Amino acid sequence: MQAIRVEALTKTFRVRRKEKGMRGSIKAILRPQTEEIRAVHGVSFEVEEGEMLAFIGPNGAGKSTLIKIICGSIRKDEGSIRMDGKEVSISGPLDAQKLGIYSVQQHFSLIPTADVAENLFFDNFPIKGAGVIDRRKMHEEAKELLDSGHSVIYFTASSLFHIFEKNVFGRETEYSEDYRNIFDCDLLILDDLGTELSNAFTSSQLFLCLNERILRRKSTIISTNLSLSQLVDTYSERTFSRISSSYTMIKLFGNDIRLQKKLGQARQGRT
Questions:
Q1: Domain 2-270: which CATH class?
Q2: Closest CA to 181 of 167, 193, 195
Q3: Position 1 pLDDT exceeds 60
Q4: Confidence at residue 56, expressed as pLDDT on a 0 to 100 scale
């Protein structure tokens, strides 16, 4: 069963650019010059129910922008999103959540003064009456969610291999639960693979992690800036074989958005 189908998604950002000699002028204020930076261009893919997908591309290729479009954080310029064969309109995060689309952001943190239920429902509190949070329903649904046993864990590559290192070489017991969860969680999101200090240990541990999760039929999402040949050179042919045979690979490519924005800012600074 096809869960989601994305067709020809395109997103272009317009960045303000100051022309030379126009700093502080009325013309620059009333008619600011802009330049276009295309972040996502004609991206199409489909995901079957239970399928794992990996987005691969260098920094600034548009991976995060694509995810934010699907999750409603950024509006697309062109293209369509279909779920179960029907085209859907996603104009914001709440629209995406109503369709069952959620994202785990690259940078996130819990609110230390809030309880578990409040952290779980922070952006989607159940409401009753005149905009009052239904705390009873919130805690009941939180308990039901936790009791269901579904779990999603996000790690950067560096933090993942740090846990592996402590488990193998250290005596600390504080990482033992994290180590078990790496293999047991329903969805593991591994970000920035290749940014860690790579060696024989990281290569063997990555193979162990991926192979074990494949055997347990657990879903995994990997994001990396490495090319296919770099994956082979960094983690061995055996590890690459597991990735290429068990994962659907999606390559995102294009101009580095971050670099273009910095260049645009640098040009503004010189004017």
A1: alpha beta
A2: 167
A3: no
A4: 84
